[in-house]
Amino acid sequence: MKLKNYSLGKWIEGDGDGIPLINAVNDEIITYASSDGLDFNAMLNYARKFGGSALRKMTFQERGRMLKALALFLTEKKGAYYAVSYKTGATKADSWIDIDGGIGTLFAYASLRRKLPNQSFCLDGDLAPLSKSNTFIGHHLLVPKEGVAIHINAFNFPIWGMLEKISVNLLAGMPAIVKPATVSSYLTEVVVKDIIASGILPEGSLQLICGSARDLLNNVTSQDVVTFTGSATTGRMLRANPRMIEESVPFNMEADSLNCSVLGLDAKPGTPDFDIFIKEVHREMTAKCGQKCTAIRRLIVPENYVDEVKKALALRLDKTIIGNPLNEEVRMGALVGRTQLSEVKEKVADLAKLTPIVYGDLNMVNLVGVDASCGSFMSPILMLNERPFDYLQSHEIEVFGPVSTLIPYKDIDEAISISKLGKGSLVSSIITSNPDIASNYVIGSAAYHGRILVLNESCAKESTGHGSPMPLLVHGGPGRAGGGEEMGGLRGIKHYMQRTAIQGSPSMITKISKTYQNGADTNESEIHLFRKYFEELQVGDLWITAKHTVTEADITNFANLSGDHFYAHMDITSLEGTIFTGRVAHGYYILSKAAGMFVDAKKGPVLLNYGIDECRFIKPVYPGMTIGVKLIVKEKIEQEKKSEEDIAKGIVKWVVDVYDETGDSVAIASILTMVKKKENV
Question: 615 an active-site residue?
Fold first, then answer.
């Protein structure tokens, strides 16, 4: 029996016998994998024609709800994934990172729909004024690319590695072809089978290759995007593919990374921060048997603390139970396979020529619940490099297993220099409670690390730890780490969208973007806009209020009500040397008065004030000046009902333009309200 590929809407086996996939725990053959016979060009065209076309017709809100539905569906199925995951050598805790972490990323990106418009595209950044009289403006528009996201993933996280990538491209409106690492592709296949069976994704949105990618990249076009997670050597080979270069295909790489953790000079043995460091290092050495792209490979510690770190870490490692992941007592499982085990041992042996092993044994490990002659198990290994500026192998050779190297430093500047020797990493951390030490390290080393965790007693209990990439933060790093970025919240979706500068009149840009631009044509309403339901409101709808003349009594009363007795509002004798020519109205009085002027007090479709996005006070308002308000519909955002009993509603963004008797704007704000839909009537 062989794994099946999902290609052109069908589950099919590859040709030939296939490659045997081995249980990492007992060396038994699980299944075989082959991608021979697959027509990769046809798969790409299928994704573009069907998956891409369907996704681009969906709005961000629809795509986000699709991701949420998928996350809920997979949550119900995850027990089956745990039942298979152990075969990769993963403990239950390891599997939680892979399975629940992957599903959690789907949920996170589903939630980001609330920050996006109810369109298939969105504006990016702020308006660019391009003319004196505001008849000609510019903006940036993001639209989904019309290609395919090709994800070539690593073996260590067969589920998370897929879900964290497709959650982003699907929200952006782009289909995907996933090629997991062959050795653990049997777990990815289980999940993809459920995804396809759910019918939640449009056909063509997701295809799966279990086996070699062969000439896949020879068929890409300029609209495609390729991501790769794995070794730097393989990544460079893929990036250099002639077709990739010819078509200028975006390529995002996450590669080898000599991540480091620094023990601050203030985190002395016996302090809580010292204990936190030992706990963090131990976790990063043993979780997934050290097979994490974010694992701590270099322990940079004050030279006076080296012996204490070695002892404390050894004591903790001694208590680590290694063996069958199905055993509840086991805390470290196996490497993914014999090939990986051999590679790890070979690299450790090479490093040990200059940096001796100070904990662990390459040839012996005490196991629980398994035959010692089977499986891909090994002891955690701690090495010592006392000459980090001479013995550079510690900064050049990544051992992708439960292996770390202890490195002493004299002062924080030296620690920074040592961290940089890795030539770019996904993550670094520093354990310190001293803000000066933390600041010096972060600013001094940030150019070499994609993420920096500052850890201490105050945040340790809730910290996700050194090795945990988060959906709302970028995952990637410079130099050796690949130079790419994944996730990062909304930043991630832009990787799968084309940013296009658009120019034109405010009215034209408003029509194109479905978002009101300052100076665009408006549609003055005869009915107060607060009397209109969500469906009835249109971008550009305008309500002009009655006017109000500001008095000194207004200013005094607001000061007494708010408690704001700032001199500019209350003491005319203190205005010398200021920009004010007289007693000035509070900015928040102007905004509050504006609200009183544009609000319709009677019960109606508007349910509540949802907040203020931005507010600027542009021109002073003095007693005797007359103000009015232009209320303009800026943007509409759909909201789904949380339950059958929930009120159908949407969010409306408004421009509040407060102007004086000369017509000049004195304050401009962007506010949000929650508005009922007509279906509630």
Answer: no
